[in-house]
Amino acid sequence: MSAQPEYAPTPPPPPAPTAAAELLARVRSSRHAEQWAPAFERDWAQALEDSRHSYSLTPLHDVVRSWEARLAVAPAVDSFMASGMDDSDGVALEDILGARP
Q: Is residue 59 part of a domain?
């Protein structure tokens, strides 16, 4: 008997074909545009290259999903930083998620 679940988890739906362009417009209109726009473009270029080699759209979808998440939490992070609360006891994100490829 195997330990496999009886059901297969449903993958998240793919982003809309225009999601990357809309996301880049949102990144460019944010107050972090100076830093984030080049980072998004770098991530997107790497995902395009990975997709060309793998014949899969998954790297592109992953970039869109990760940047959507970043933009979603940006207001909360901004308000925390503006509050002046001490964040010196925090843990580096790389320690939790691992180094970026």
A: yes
